[in-house]
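Incident log, support desk, overnight shift.

02:14 A customer reports that sequence design results differ from what the structure should imply. Their input is reproduced verbatim below. On-call engineer (initials T.W.) acknowledged and began investigating.
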């Protein structure tokens, strides 16, 4: 089983967040990322947010340097 991650550095934000979250399962990762998005970025826990977060899941581990999406 490959490790999975989401890296806030690859998603434009007003605070230029540098958090990367990783987990062994997509379910665990999405839950942690939703909590982060709500607590830090002020989002609401909605099905749409969960869909966007799930789409941002990558396999492996976060790289040391990430280019920001435009």
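02:41 Re-run completed on a clean worker. Output:
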């Amino acid at each position: 089983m490959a490790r999975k991650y989401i890296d806030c550095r690859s998603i434009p934000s007003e605070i230029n967040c540098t958090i990367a979250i990783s987990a062994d399962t997509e379910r665990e990762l999405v839950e942690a990322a939703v909590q982060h998005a709500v607590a830090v970025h002020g989002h609401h826990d909605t099905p749409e947010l969960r869909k966007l977060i799930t789409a941002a899941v990558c396999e492996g581990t976060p790289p040391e340097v990430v280019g920001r999406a435009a």
